[in-house]
Structures are given as C-alpha cells and as structure tokens.
Amino acid sequence: MRFATKAIRVAQNPESEHRSVSYPLYQTSTFAWDQIDEEPKVAYSRVNNPNRLVLEEVLASMENGTHCTCFSSGMAAVVAALSLLEAGDHVLVASDIYGGTYRYIEAILPRQGIGHSIFDADNPSSISQAVTPRSKMVVFESPTNPLLRVCDIRAIVAEAKKHGLITVFDNTFASPALQRPLDLGCDIVIHSTTKYITGHSDVVGGAFITSDAAFGEAAAEWVKNTGASPSPFDAWLCLRGLKTLALRMERHSANAQRVAEWLQQQPDVSAVYYPGLPDSPYHQVAKSQMDGFSGMLSFEFGTVEMAKVVGTSTRIFLLAESLGGVESLIGYPTLMSHGCLTEEQRVERGVHPNLLRLSVGIEDVNDLIEDLDQAFAKARKAVGVAAIHA
C-alpha cells in the first residue's frame, strides 16, 4: 500500500454493525468489561482508546515503523523520548533545534542528573568530539527550526552508531509525506502532530514512532503512567486531517517554492532560507533524502525595523505561532519559537531579530505573493519616513 492510500485505508475498515465509512468518535472515558478476569483491549481512555489506537497504527505505517504512541502535545512526545535516559546519562543535542526542546534539555534534565552537550549537525564528526563515556542519545531535526538547515541524516546516524547512541529525530517540519527517518536508520521519530499531520490548526498533539519493540513499549508505559495522552476527539480530528496530508504537502511545497523565489528577488531581503532553492547549500542533501521541500521558509532583512513592520502588515499571512496548517502564518522566531532562549543563545544559533519565518499555506500562491508585496511596500514607506525624521 502506497503512502497516500495508507492514511485513508490502514485500520479503517467499516465496523460490522453500522458500516460507518468514517471511523466513529469514541468520546468516552471508560469501557465495559465482558468478563471480570480478562481485561478488554480498551478499558480506560487515559491508557488507550479506539480513536488513538487507529491513529497510532496509521502513523506507524506512514513512517514505516511498527510502534507508535500518541501524546497530548509534541513536547510530551519529546519528553517521552528523553525519558529513556537515566540519572548519570548524557545526551547530545544539535545546535540548531526547536527552542522548546533545548529549553527542556537545558533546564529540566540537569535536575534529573542528566547532562548534555551541543554538536553541529552540519558536521557529523562533531558527535565524536562531543561524546562522553556517559553519552546515550542524540537528538536532532531536519529541516531545522527556524533556519531550514538540512543535515545528512544517514551520516549522523552512522556516526552515532559508532558510539552506541540512540538516535531521536524530530520530523515535524517535513512530515512522513516528505521524509521517513526510520528508513534512514533513526531509532525514534517524534512529531508535533499539531502541525502538518493534523494540518488545520485545531489540535495540539504529539507522536513517538519506532520499530524497536523495547522503545515502543517504554513510550506506551510512559503515556499510561504520566497521563500525557490525547483526548479521543483530538485523536479523531488528527486522523481526519491526516487523510489529506499527501495532497496538502504537495501544495505547501509548491507554494513555498514560489514564495522563496519571489523573496530572492526583493532588494530588501538579505537572505532566504529554503532548501528548495538550487543555490541553497542544503539543496542536494535535501534532494537525496526528501520527497519535497515542505512549506517552511525563513528570510532576513537588512534592518530589524523592516522585519517588524512586514511582520505586522500582512493581511493573509497571520502573525501567529505554530506552523503546518492550511492557512499561511508569519512568525517572529526571536519572540516565538526561540523566545525561551537568551539573546546570546539565539545569536549563537543564527536567530537574529531581523529574521521572519513563514509557514506557507495552501491558499492561491498569487494572493500570498501579493500580500507580501503590499506588506513590503508599507514597510519601505514606514522605514523610509522614520529614517528621514531621524
């Protein structure tokens, strides 16, 4: 069964009694037992629920994995992966990664007796330079948030395996429609299903996917014991959104390509970060491991003032956090995705206050470009007037 078909047909056969084509919502906290000495497959929705079980089976199939556990948020999935570490262990984290992931590793793990070091995902050999005798895990992502850097996943996995490290990969920016890291050797893939997987900005959720039975069982036990499980309705909404993932990602990627090419032609823009551009330093490696370049891109202006005016002047692009929905969003990483970091930490990672991030939606791309064009014109006028008065 091919990718686009999996989202619609895996584990979703009509039930025998009513033959519902759309998998029904089991909005219940508990389930009746048939026998007192035999626990049913689903008994209590914190532990499992039919909607969650179907979603997990579909997501596992789409990532070509065998085990999936869904969570109430992407960060809950991150924490579940990091729960494989114990006091005295050490984790290597890529320098360019989602700010919330780094915040947890930096602020919470030390309280549990777990240390960390930074490595450069552009240079897989830096793993060997950062590894310690206590190192147990590598955490990384690609394309990265927010600079769209693309690492060589196979090379990082190979380097990590030399040291016996567990590889945990955040596939949120690409989704399994464009990239399947388990096929490239990763041990665990995590998602914020809030983003492309659900795709409609109406659910917060996460997923942990693996082909390692021990890791899969650990994740299932973790969600049961911590209560970080999604509601039946959230699982149902996520499954509904997932059905159109393949189509949406095609449109997201095509629109982002056009927007990135337009941005490159603007004299006010000093840099465009998008792996689909032929002159991107990450274009070739992206082509080697991705089936498309996704709908995420970032760009920089020569001045902070231009970035701030453009960020508040668009009419179709909404100024908001998050990404991956059908609607286009414009974000300011300095205060949004990486607002939890210090200014020094942001600068070290290349996240400057003149940077804007776009989550390019599935609207008509001509409307999106016209929207950016009018925002640029407004910003040029405002910044020009300000300069004159200065």
Which key features would you list for this structure?
Aspartate Aminotransferase, domain 2; single chain; 12 strands; Aspartate Aminotransferase, domain 1; 390 residues; alpha/beta; five-stranded mixed sheet; seven-stranded mixed sheet
The number of distinct β-strands equals 12
How would you state the average pLDDT, rounded? Answer: 95
Question: Which series of helices and strands comes N to C?
Answer: HHEHEHEHEHEEEHHHEHEHEEHEH
Ends apart, CA distance between termini: 64 Å
| Helical run tally | 13
How much beta, percentage-wise?
5-15%
Q: What does this protein structure show overall?
A:
It is a single chain. This protein is an alpha/beta fold. It folds into 2 domains: 3-242, 3-Layer(aba) Sandwich (Aspartate Aminotransferase, domain 2), CATH 3.40.640.10; 246-389, Aspartate Aminotransferase, domain 1. It contains 13 helices and 12 strands. The strands form 2 sheets. It has a 7-stranded mixed sheet with strand order 1-7-6-5-4-2-3, with helices on both faces. It has a 5-stranded mixed sheet with strand order 8-9-12-11-10. It is globular, with a radius of gyration of 22 Å. The mean pLDDT is 95.
Secondary-structure blueprint of this entry?
Layout: H1 3-9, H2 50-62, E1 67-71, H3 74-82, E2 90-94, H4 99-107, E3 115-119, H5 126-130, E4 135-141, H6 153-162, E5 166-170, E6 188-192, E7 206-210, H7 213-226, H8 232-242, H9 245-264, E8 269-273, H10 283-289, E9 296-301, H11 304-311, E10 318-319, E11 329-331, H12 343-348, E12 355-359, H13 365-389
Parallel strand pairs: 2-3, 2-4, 4-5, 5-6, 10-11
Antiparallel strand pairs: 1-7, 6-7, 8-9, 9-12, 11-12
